Amino acid sequence: IPSVSNIVPESCLLIVVGLLVGGLIKGVGEKPPILKSNIFFLFLLPPIILDAGYFLPLRQFTENLGTILIFAVVGTLWNAFFLGGLMYAVCQLGGPGLNHIGLLANLLFGSIISAVDPVAVLAVFEEIHINELLHILVFGESLLNDAVTVVLYHLFEEFANFEQVTIIDIILGFLSFFVVSLGGVFVGVIYGVIAAFTSRFTSHIRVIEPLFVFLYSYMAYLSAELFHLSGIMALIASGVVMRPYVEANISHKSHTTIKYFLKMWSSVSETLIFIFLGVSTVAGNHYWNWTFVISTLLFCLIARVLGVLVLTWFINKFRIVKLTPKDQFIIAYGGLRGAIAFSLCYLLDYKHFGMRDMFLTAIITVIFFTVFVQGMTIRPLVDLLAVKKKQETKRSINEEIHTQFLDHLLTGIEDICGHYGHHHWKDKLNRFNKKYVKKCLIAGERSKEPQLIAFYHKMEMKQAIELVESGGIGKIPSAVSTVSIQNINPKTLPVARILPALSKDKEEEIRKILRNNLQKTRQRLRSYNRHTLVADPYEEAWNQMLLRRQKARQLEQKMNNYLTVPAHKLDSPTMSRARIGSDPLAYEPKADSENLPIITIDPASPQSPESVDLMNEEPKGCSGLPPSPEEDEEGLVMRVKEPSSPGTDDVFTPGTGDSPSNQRMLRCLSDPGPRPEPEEGEPFIPKGQ
C-alpha cells in the first residue's frame, strides 16, 4: 500500500504488526515470546552494525569525526546525567510510589534511555533521503555512543551492588571508558587485518571468500563482548579496516554476494527487532506511573534539544561548514530511541532493581513516541524546511578526479605553510598504506596499481594473445586497441637526447643556488620571534662597507652641486655662454682659450654613453704648461682615462689626479647612471660574436 508507506515509516508498521501478533497469541491463550537480551545482542544486532560499518561512507565519516565524537560522548554523558538527576528529583517529590528509587537507579535509567539507537535511526533516515552530512552526524553518533552506554550501564550496575562508592571507584569508572572504546577499536582492527591477510590466499577457493568476512567480523564482536568492551565499535573498526583489502583480493561475484547477503541479513534482523518490540509490549509485565512516564518523555526531549544547541554553538567555532539552525533541528529531532534501550533494561536483575517493570514501561513509551511521532513527522518537516536531500546519482569520474586533485593541492598547501592538518595526516597515512600495508595484505600486482587498471591490462593482454594465436595481425579487429598491438610489436625506444655535460664547478654552483634558495617544504616553519633570530656574522662588515660607500657618494654629490670653478668670474666659460645666450650683441668674449674644459672618458666601451666618467674642468694655465694653438682651435679636448689596476675600487682608491684642488673643480657633465662594479668591467658580449 504505497499511500500508507509514504506517510508511516516501515519501523512503525512493523511494531504495529508485532502488537497485532502479540494480541492474537494472547487472545488464543498462549504466552507471547519476549525479546530476550541474549538473542538480541548475539544474533539480531551484529548484522545491522556490520552492514553499517562495512559500507560506511568513510570520507564523510572521517571529515566529521570530531563533531560526531563530541555529540556521541559529551552529548550522551549530558543526557544521562541531566535525565538521571532530574528523574531523581521527580522521584523525591513524586509521592510514596517513587520515594524508594535512589540516585544510582535513576542514573542507570538515564544512561539506558539517553543513547540514540542506530537501528531506529537507520530505519527512519534511509527513507527520508536526508543529505550526507546530517545522515552521518546522527548515524555516526548512534554508532559511537555505544561505548559510553556500555560503560555507564555496567558502572551504575556495579555501583548499585556496593555499600559505599569511593572516589577511586569513580576515577576507575572514568578510565574504563577509554579502555572500553579504544579496546573495542583495537580488537576490531586486529580481526580486520587478519581477514584481509586471509583473503590474500583464497584465489583458488572463491566459494568461501564471503564466509571469511562474516566469520572474522562476528569473532571481533564476540571477543569484544567477552571482555565487556564495545562490540559495536569492534564491528565498525573491523568492517572499515578489512573492506579495501578484501575487495582487492576477492572476485567480483564474491563482492556481490557479500553486499546482498549483508543487506538481506540486516533487513531481516531489523524486521525481527521491531516485530519483537511489539510482541514484547503485549507480553511483558507493566507498571504504569503517570508521573514517572510523562516526566521521562518530557525530560528526554528537553535534554536532547539543550545538548544539541549548546554543543553545536561550541562546534561551529571550529567548523568551516557551519551547522545551520535547520541542521540543528533535524539532529535534535532525529534522536530516536530503539531496541537497544529495551534490551539493556530487560537485562536488569530484579534483586537489585525492583522497579524494572516501571523502567520498561517508561522506555517502551519513549521508544513508541520517538519512532511513531518523530519518525512520522520528520519527513514532512524536512520538506517544509527545504532541507537539502541526498543526491541519488553517483559521482562522475570527472568529479572523482577533481576531488582527488583538490586533496593533493590542499596537502601541498598545508606542507608549504608548515601546518599539519587533516589533509597532511591523511596523505601520510595513504603513503604508509601504499608503501607497506598493501604489499602485505593484497596479493599480486593489484597491490601496485588500481584494480580497474589491472583489469584493463589483463583484458588487453588476453586480446593480444588471441590475436597472435589466430595469426591475424594483418587483419586487426576493431575491438583491439592500439595498446594490444604495441604489446605484440613493441616499438624501439627513441634514443635519449644527449644533454651537454656540466663542469664540476658549474654543477657545484647550481647546487649551491638551489640549496640556498629552495624552500624545504616538509619541515614545520618556525614562527617569527626577534629574540630567537640568528645573527649574521657578515652583517656588521657589510654595513660598514655600505656606510663608507654612501658617505663617499654623498661627498661627491655635494661637491658637484655646490662648488664652483675659481677662475675669472667674467671670463668663465659657463658665464660667457650665459651672457652670450642672453645678449650676444652687448657682450663679446675675449679671444682666450685658457679655460677650455677637458672630458675624461673610460675606454671600456666607447660606444656607450655610460662610459663618460667625470669632466675635468681644469684650466690649462693651472697645469703649468702654456696652451698650444691646436688646443685653442679644437675647443673641448677628449683625453683617455688610464685604466685602473685590477682589484681596486673607484670609491676607495684615490687616483693620480685626485688632489684636493682637482677634486674641488670636479663637475658632472651628465648623470652617468649606476657605476659598474670592479668585477663587471668586461663587456657583456665577447668580441667576435
Automatic annotation (TrEMBL):
One GO term describing the cellular component: basolateral plasma membrane
Query: Where is the chain membrane-spanning?
Result: 6-25, 37-56, 68-91, 103-124, 136-156, 168-198, 218-241, 262-284, 290-316, 328-347, 359-382
Q: Which GO terms describe its biological process?
A: regulation of intracellular pH; sodium ion import across plasma membrane
Q: Which residues form a coiled coil?
A: 504-531
Reading the lineage from the top rank, the first entry is Eukaryota
Which portions of the sequence form the region Disordered? 599-689
One of this protein's Pfam families, by short name?
Na_H_Exchanger
One term of GO molecular function: sodium:proton antiporter activity
Q: Which UniProt keywords apply?
A: Antiport, Calmodulin-binding, Cell membrane, Coiled coil, Glycoprotein, Ion transport, Lipoprotein, Membrane, Palmitate, Phosphoprotein, Sodium, Sodium transport, Transmembrane, Transmembrane helix, Transport, Ubl conjugation
How does this chain sit within the bilayer?
A: Multi-pass membrane protein
Q: Where is the Cation/H+ exchanger transmembrane domain?
A: 8-382
Localization in the cell: Basolateral cell membrane
Q: Which reactions is this enzyme annotated as catalysing?
A: Li(+)(in) + Na(+)(out) = Li(+)(out) + Na(+)(in); Li(+)(out) + H(+)(in) = Li(+)(in) + H(+)(out); Na(+)(in) + H(+)(out) = Na(+)(out) + H(+)(in)
What name has this protein been given in UniProt?
A: Sodium/hydrogen exchanger
Give the Sodium/hydrogen exchanger regulatory region domain ranges: 480-564
- Please name the InterPro entries in this protein's record: Cation/H_exchanger_CPA1, Cation/H_exchanger_TM, NaH_exchanger, NHE-1-like, NHE_CaM-bd
By sequence similarity, the record places it as follows: Belongs to the monovalent cation:proton antiporter 1 (CPA1) transporter (TC 2.A.36) family.
Q: Does the keyword Cell membrane apply?
A: yes
The answer on whether this UniProt entry bears the keyword Zinc reads: no
Q: What is the predominant subcellular site recorded for this chain?
A: membrane
